Amino acid sequence: MTSPLLARPGAVAAAGPDAGVALHYGDPVHEQRALARGEAVVDLSHLGVVTVTGPDRISWLNTLSSQLLLGLEPGASTELLLLDVHGHVEHAPAVVDDGETTWLVTEAADAEPLAAFLDKMRFMLRVEVARRDDVAVLGTAAGGWTALAGHPAHLLTWLDPWPRTAPGSTHYGPPDADHPGAEVPRGLSLVRRDALADVAAAGGRLAGTWAWEALRVAAWRPRLAREVDDRAIPHELDWLRTAVHLSKGCYRGQETVARVVNLGRPPRRLVMLHLDGSEHVLPEPGAEVLAGEKVVGHLTSVVRHEELGPAALALVKRSVAVDAPLRAGGIAAAQEVIVGPEGVTDARPAERPGAGLRRRDLRP
Questions:
Q1: pLDDT surpassing 60 at residue 353
Q2: Is residue 357 very low, low, confident or very high in pLDDT (cuts 50, 70, 90)?
Q3: Alpha-carbon gap, residue 279 to 94, rounded angstroms
Q4: Nearest 10 degrees: CA dihedral of 203, 205, 208, 213?
Q5: How far apart are CA 255 and CA 260, in angstroms?
Q6: Which of 119, 125, 239, 307 is 20 to 30 A distant from 316 in Cα terms?
């Protein structure tokens, strides 16, 4: 659905997975600066909201997902992944519970598939799943969500856990203290859709998804609608750090998660690309990444950041050298490592599982 805030003077409509809201309102650089200071609000009302109610909701979601949800306190923010049997990412909602309802925030195109999947997995449990088209989402950063919290139409806020490595998780990228994602925390506030414009006014100036995405890419934060394709596994995106608990019970795709952690070497790795800004044009997401004449990956997200300039996230083959000169969509690109080519974490066993076994040890 199209947001009423697109009628504001200067609004330029976004496209792709952000269709329906504004890309910017005429001044994307200053919008990004205001957002990073906590003085702006982003219309993300195109995002999907799904709720789960009923006394079994937490334990049920725990059995389905990659995340340990048992003991989730009201108001606490987390995220989960729903994987297929091969460990590929299918859904990746933000999660916050208010004590009676679990709220899931996801991509616009994923809301219906997510709700349908959950609904068919209910069986005889005491849970109810619903799409919440009466609820909209506003994005803020750097504490800007506090300005929205006092509004009577504000329901609750999810605070992005990225990039803090959760207990029971691990990371393929840098330690939390060295991670650029720690510089500008972000939040998603759920509000009554009929009061969207009124609540947004409480958050300061309006900023578009141009600014929101620029902060996300600078934080190396994966997004379902951009970084995930039909063969993406969470290790490639460094998504274990906030969305996967390595010691919880069984869930679909767990075998792949455990195998890649134990053996290492995920087939691809997420990188940050600094693009040559002298071309005055940007490649599109999906453009091929080349090392010499060889295709080694593809762009997933492309932004103009007010400090970094043209930048992108890309998935490339694990074997690509970290100092290899690359071209993305015909534009020269310098690589910044996110997931290292060695593809190992501190959760990997010192010795490969089963390495001590010999054929004779298996004989009766």
A1: no
A2: very low
A3: 37
A4: -60
A5: 9
A6: 307
8 A C-beta contact, residue 315 and residue 232: yes
Whole-angstrom distance, CA of residue 213 vs CA of residue 14: 11
Least Cα distance to 61 among 135, 129, 163, 159 occurs for 129
Rounded CA separation 54/80 (Å) = 19
Kindly list the strands in the beta sheet with 40-43, ordered across the sheet, starting from the edge strand earlier in the chain: 154-159, 186-192, 135-141, 40-43, 205-207
Contact between residue 71 and residue 152 where contact means Cβ atoms under 8 Å apart: no
CB 175, CB 241: distance < 8 Å? no
Task: Name the CA radius of gyration of the chain, rounded.
Answer: 21
Q: Model confidence at 349, in pLDDT bands (50, 70, 90)?
A: confident
Q: Is the pLDDT of residue 363 over 60?
A: no
pLDDT in tens, 300-319: 999 999 999 999 999 999 99
Question: Positive or negative, the Cα torsion across 296, 300, 304, 305?
Answer: negative
Q: Which residue has the tokens 């195998």?
A: 259
User: Token pair 């001590």 is at which residue?
Assistant: 356
Calculate the alpha carbon distances from 305 to 29, 76, 202, 274, 282 in Å.
8, 30, 25, 10, 12
Domains annotated for the chain, with CATH where assigned, are 4-227 (3.30.1360.120), 268-341 (2.40.30.110)
The set of residues, in sequence order, having a beta carbon less than 8 Å from that of 302 and lying 6+ positions away, is 275, 282, 283, 284, 285, 310, 311, 312
pLDDT, tens digit, 9 for 90 and up, residues 29-57:
999 999 999 999 999 999 999 999 999 99
Q: Measured in whole angstroms, how far is the alpha carbon of residue 184 from the centre of its chain?
A: 15
Q: State the pTM of this model.
A: 0.95
Q: DSSP 3-state assignment of 78?
A: strand
Among residues of the chain, what percentage have pLDDT more than 70? 96
Alpha-carbon torsion (198, 199, 201, 202), positive or negative? positive
